[in-house]
Description:
The chain is of the alpha/beta class. The protein has helices spanning about 20-30, 60, 75-90, 100-105, 110-115, 140-145, 170-190, 200-205, 210-215, 225-230, 275-280, 295-300, 305-315, 320-325, 340-345, 345-350, 390-400, 405-410, and strands spanning about 10-15, 30-35, 65-70, 90-95, 120-125, 195-200, 250-255, 265-270, 335, 355-360, 365-370.
Amino acid sequence: MSKALEGVKILDMTHVQSGPTCTQLLAWFGADVIKVERPGVGDATRGQLRDIPDVDSLYFTMLNHNKRSVTLNPKTDSGAKIFTKLIEECDVLVENFAPGAIDRMGFPWGKIQEINPRMIYASVKGFGPGPYEDCKVYENVAQCTGGAASTTGFLDGPPLVTGAQIGDSGTGLHLAFGIVTALYHREQSGKGQRVECAMQDGVLNLSRVKLRDQQRLAHGPLKEYSQFGQGIEFGDATPRAGNDSGGGQPGWILKCKGWETDPNAYVYFITQAAVWGNICDLIGKPEWKEDPGYAKPADRLDKIKPIFDAIEEWTMTMDKFEVMNLCNPLNIPCGPILSMKELAEEPSLRETGTIVEVDHPERGKYLTVGNPVKLSDSPSDVKRSPLLGEHTDEILKTVLGLNDEEIAAAREEGAI
Ligand code: COA
């Protein structure tokens, strides 16, 4: 079976997390991703958060599977020539350096287009055009400036960032989508184009239901937020909603047996209107089915907290998996809070390739998250990340056609 993106060559100038998540996705789908790294230095994450001395960190290995690594300094004479050849040969250039870094290397968009009019040039930046366009940005800055932090956390606490890397990996996903769209468009137009994703925009896109709520506030309190039932007034901006569900079906995180000692003995429980009767029977409150204060969803909006208190009395009598096993047959949506340890050990995720064990020549075996997108005719296999410059000679010879003398001269100059 062929891979969906086989034949597509990616000139990968990405580093840290946002850009590498994008090119890793493209590599999983079969694109030939040539990761360009500074000679002797490489992507800074190779050395960050190391768990084993002198070995590429898990931060790096888990974001750079299925790629080839070439060391190259485009700021040197022969480096610039090699970089020009790479632009000629590749379909997509992806980068997430600070604003202007590729221009400062001597390769502004106009020049890239001249070298290869079919080239798609894709970038992640912290912000789009405007007052902050020149700023450097990391994950949590994007979460804070994109609306996620102001709406995450509890009402009586400070804004919170989330563990899901919506700024970096989220924007990488958006960028990959933009690249594939531009490749599709190139089929008809014959021309490449710029693809730009700002991390602030990506986070705001993922927080869109909170902008929905901002506008609903003008027409009255947000009745599905539990603060409504608690009589707490709304301010002029979408509030932090604790564990309230983001949609029209109230939900909350509830304690299960063992919560006193196990930080993850909890379950997310949704009181979906369609199965309200099942919930009442299950938790021993059959009278709520007919009670005019509880029977209809609108009747319950001012009682979200006491309802979940009652459900919690029931969930605390069993463990989170027992809750799920009892709810599932009754179509009651709920989810146990799974720790990273539990996910790493979950057999069904190993079977689908969502959790994969990879062998690395220097670190040995480690776990990673495989491709979460499954294509029926183009399965992804996860190959270990490359060592720094592991494929430099191979790429210069086979992709660019350089001979041994040219490679030696470039090395002499410090270009590779
Ligand atoms: N050869 C020679 N120089 C290279 C090189 C190579 N192969 N690869 C990178 N460099 C240079 C660049 O030219 C640049 O130099 P310059 O500033 O003199 O022009 C420098 O290395 C990299 O700069 P920068 O991107 O500023 O790195 P940083 O570590 O200071 O900042 C970020 C990191 C992530 C804050 C910044 O890159 C950024 O804001 N990126 C956009 C947003 C983003 O993706 N953030 C999330 C990251 S997960």
